[in-house]
Amino acid sequence: MSCRLTRIFLAWTLIALGTVAARAAEEPSYTHTEDVIYGRKYGVALTMDVFTPKKDANGAAVIFVVSGGWFSAHDSIKPMTPLLLEFLKRGYTVFAVVHGSQPKFTVPEILLDMHRAVRYIRSHAKDFKIEPERIGITGGSAGGHLSLMQGTAGDLGDPKARDPVDRVSSRVQAVACFFPATDFLNFGEKGHVLLSATMQPQFRAALDYHEFDKDKRVFVPVADEKKALEIARQISPIYHVTADDPPTLIIHGDKDTLVPLQQSEAIMAKFKEAGVPAELVVKRGAGHGWLTMKDDIATLADWFDKYLRKKS
User: Fold this and answer.
1) 77-89 vs 293-308: helix axis angle to the nearest 10?
2) Model confidence at 25, in pLDDT bands (50, 70, 90)?
């Protein structure tokens, strides 16, 4: 992973490490099941780790998208585990989802993985002791983008699919995330398009779109600009906003130079226009991550409490 890409995880890791020493001697209040296979593609297993409260589980789930710069790895889960404790202590079962990672897989392919993960969790709700219509999702940066895509573009599944998991909905019931990209056609300013050629080098592979040529039996680059722009639109949450989207919270720094605050402001305007319950928390003076983000994890959990907990 490049130095710049590593920075996306840095703030999360620093927060996590800050709580490790204080909890090292404590008996874990949860069980941790590693490498649950939620799907397969091209001979590769797609996995998630499942964290289950030992007591006082509330029957709801929080999906944590393990992603920064659309890079995803199982090794990233362990240092981030302390960040999940806020959700666990409130009774949420947490699913840390690892998706097919760039540079091998592109954003459109990654989105298919996220759909599959939600479908798998919902179809196995009884096994995980959760209720299938109380699922939230969270993440930061690319994980925030993927969370918003699940919130705005989740679907009801294919009733004719051969695999029963694929017949199940991939929709979620609440979103709470950090500094997401939302509009690849107007990134930071009107008309600035995010494509592989315009991205910073470490992120280009994620947008290096290819399609399968059935005649030649090979993957070929998407060279047509119009088609590339359409893909950029399809992977932008802002163009999928509708009135039935789940309640959405975004936290974003106003000094973010990697993902401009404009991205969150733009989609927030769309949510308001559509009548979707939505809130933007602006962190003054903060960039793409900040050392006090641990305090904001509680804000995310409060959002999930508001929309995922059963009303007494």
Assistant:
1) 50
2) very low
CA distances to 25, 36, 42, 93, 196 from 89, rounded to whole Å, are 17, 22, 37, 10, 41
Query: Which residues lie across from 177 on neighbouring strands?
Result: 250
Report the phi/psi class of residue 106: left, alpha or beta, with left for phi > 0 and alpha for psi in -120 to 50: beta
Side-chain-side CA neighbours of residue 123 (13 Å): 18
Q: Which has the closest alpha carbon to 288: 256, 250, 251?
A: 256
- State how far the Cα of 11 lies from the Cα of 26, in Å rounded to an integer: 24
Q: Is the pLDDT of residue 201 over 80?
A: yes
Give the global pTM: 0.92
Q: Give the confidence band of 5 by pLDDT, cuts at 50, 70, 90.
A: very low
Provide the pLDDT for residue 166: 97
Question: In this structure, are residues 138 and 173 in contact, taking their beta carbons and an 8 Å threshold?
Answer: no
> Distance between CA atoms of 49 and 64, rounded to whole angstroms?
10
User: Whose CA is closest to 65, among 117, 29, 19, 22?
Assistant: 117
Tokens describing residue 45: 């297993």
Where in the chain does DSSP place strands (E)? 30-41, 44-53, 61-66, 93-98, 135-138, 174-178, 210-213, 218-221, 248-253, 278-283
Please state the three-class secondary structure of 19-80 as a single string.
Answer: HHHHHCCCCCCEEEEEEEEEEEECCEEEEEEEEEECCCCCCCEEEEEECECCECCHHHHHHH
DSSP 8-class letter at 166: G
Task: Give how far the C-alpha of residue 133 lies from the chain's centroid of Cα atoms, to the nearest Å.
Answer: 18
Confidence at 21, pLDDT banded by 50, 70, 90: very low
Name the pLDDT band for 223 (thresholds 50, 70, 90).
confident
Distances (CA, A) of 30 to 54, 89, 94, 298: 5, 9, 10, 18
Residue at token pair 């930071």 = 188
Residues 6+ apart with CB under 8 A from 26: none
